[in-house]
Specification:
The protein has ten helices and eight strands. By secondary structure, it is an alpha/beta fold. It comes from Berryella wangjianweii.
């Protein structure tokens, strides 16, 4: 069994223990450190979603493998938005209104609607990008008014090395999504369904907190051994 297939099997186990359908969580294989051969191998094992953090790599790999969904998960630069819109099925890292307006402009020129997630800096770490939790409702309201941008949900990254703190961050993002939806029209709120949270070190905690997208690179593409999931009591999570 290949590495992607192993991770997908573990995701199934974690979903079972979280009492969630496997289909409710999208596994994005973060391919930013690997070449086309490894992407092709993951596709052969069933991968259908990949994440890139650089526009050049996104352009190259999306052209080679247009049959799968590509996600842009890196920092957005205004001058490269034209290279991202239309190639990325979902942009995970929107956190500036000027970028939202530029995405809207490019998407309008292409005759499409670009799906986006708002990146939220839930942990408050200075090293992380993102809208602050107290500003996310107003930010989401302004994004939702754009004609060629479709708000699909929120994204965050948790501090590394502390599973309990990660769980708290993920649970707060889930709360913020509900808060955002409560301030949008019913029609718009119905489309705000995604929570992109959890990476190789903390995706299990994210699934228990309600993640609909997990972004996993190292466990899918490195030669490191996979730490198998062991169910824990509720008071240990």
């Amino acid at each position: 069994m290949g590495r992607y297939a192993q991770v997908a099997t573990e995701l199934q186990d974690v979903c079972d223990h979280a009492l969630r359908p496997f289909e409710s969580v999208c596994l994005v294989a973060v391919s930013k450190t690997v070449g086309s051969d490894q992407v092709a191998a993951a596709i052969a094992q069933g991968a259908g979603d990949f994440g890139e953090n650089r526009p050049d790599a996104l352009m190259e790999k999306q052209a080679l493998f247009p049959q799968v969904r590509w996600h842009f998960i890196g920092n957005i630069q205004s001058r490269r938005i034209g290279d991202i819109v239309g190639r990325a099925a979902l942009i995970h890292s929107l956190c500036q209104l000027k970028h939202a307006h530029r995405i809207d402009e490019v998407a309008a020129g292409l005759g499409i609607v670009q799906d986006v997630l708002i990146e939220v800096n839930v942990s408050g770490e200075e090293s992380k990008s993102g809208v602050s939790p107290r500003e996310v409702v107003d930010f989401a309201r302004q994004v939702s008014e754009l004609q060629h941008v479709r708000l699909r949900g929120l994204m965050t990254m948790a501090p590394q090395g502390d599973p309990q703190r990660a769980r708290e961050v993920f649970e707060e993002l889930a709360y913020l999504k509900e808060l955002v939806c409560a301030h949008l029209s019913d029609e718009v709120a119905a489309e705000v369904s995604e929570l992109s949270m959890g990476m190789s070190g903390d995706w299990r905690e994210a699934v228990f907190a309600g993640a609909t997208i997990v972004r996993i690179g190292r466990a899918v593409f490195s030669d490191e051994s996979i730490e198998r999931f062991a169910p824990r009591r509720e008071d240990e999570r």
